Amino acid sequence: MSPETTTLLLVRHGQTPTTGQLLPGRTPGLHLSDAGREQAARVAKRLSELRLTALYSSPLERTRETAQATADATGLSVIEDPGLLELEVGDWTGEKLADLARSPEWQTVQHEPASFTFPGGESFQEMLERMVDALTRIRTAHPGGTVVCFSHADPIRAVLAHEMGTPLDKFQRLSVGPCSVSAIAYPSDHDPLVLTVNSTQDSLATLTAQ
Questions:
Q1: Confidence (pTM)
Q2: Residue 163 catalytic?
Q3: Quick check: 40 pLDDT over 70?
Q4: Per the residue annotation, which of 65, 86, 88, 163 is the catalytic one?
Q5: How confident is the model at residue 206 (pLDDT cuts 50, 70, 90)?
Q6: Beta strand 54-57 with 193-199: parallel, antiparallel or unpaired?
Q7: Where are the alpha helices (DSSP H) in 57-114?
Q8: Which of 13, 69, 90, 100 yields a CA-CA distance of 20 to 30 A from 22?
Q9: Are 78 and 67 spatial neighbours (Cβ–Cβ below 8 Å)?
């Protein structure tokens, strides 16, 4: 009997009016911009090339709207999972990135994130553990399937680094752009395989665990 492989596709939400300008965190009511909706439509087309088993999404509007484009293209329903939520940045919510970049704490965020907890929020380590728990639960529910999880940049980058065996302090070296697809295969007989990171153009139909 050949080993069973479950594949998770991790998709960052599309662009919003604050992308690259503010640290939105879990701000409610933040929707996709026109560009973000176009990105969501493009990634939906790419994902619809695959035989998908299920769609999961962070409950925030920007991820739900991104996921809905794929739901419309595939006929699958979107299942909300709070484990896929954005990092809770607490008192930093809504701050300008340019202002934060001038603070001493920002250097810790960039270079030693494993030791940082956002004031009034969660730590990067807590975010990673939450994501790992969520993805373990999701893939256990769909053995042998191909599941899409719509989430956010830092949670996706952190879990990719984790599955690569990379220390959390180095996860900022990974780039995860709006509506990019990263894929991890979980064979039943050995360690996870990261199939692609930050994919925005190529066909997904040829993704295989080799």
A1: 0.94
A2: no
A3: yes
A4: 86
A5: low
A6: unpaired
A7: 61-74, 97-100, 104-111
A8: 69
A9: yes
Q: Distance between the two ends of the chain, CA-based, in angstroms?
A: 17
Helices (H), 79-206: 97-100, 104-111, 124-141, 153-164
Give me the amino acid identity at 100: L
Residue 2 predicted with pLDDT over 60 = no
49 is known as an active-site residue:
no
Rounded Cα–Cα distance for residues 119 and 100 (Å): 13
Torsion angle (degrees, nearest 10) of CA 167, 173, 174, 176: 130
Task: Return the half-sphere exposure (C-beta side, CA atoms, 13 A cut-off) of residue 134.
Answer: 27
**Catalytic residue among 13, 65, 88, 152, which?**
13
**124-141 vs 153-164: helix crossing angle, rounded to 10:** 80
Considering only CA atoms, which of 32, 76, 83, 71 is closest in space to residue 53? 76
- Encode pLDDT of 133-151 as tens digits: 999 999 999 999 999 999 9
Find the helix or strand (DSSP H, E) in which 185 lies.
strand 181-187
Give per-residue pLDDT as tens, 97-134: 999 999 999 999 999 999 999 999 999 999 999 999 99
Q: Which of 83, 81, 58, 57 is nearest to 70 (CA)?
A: 57
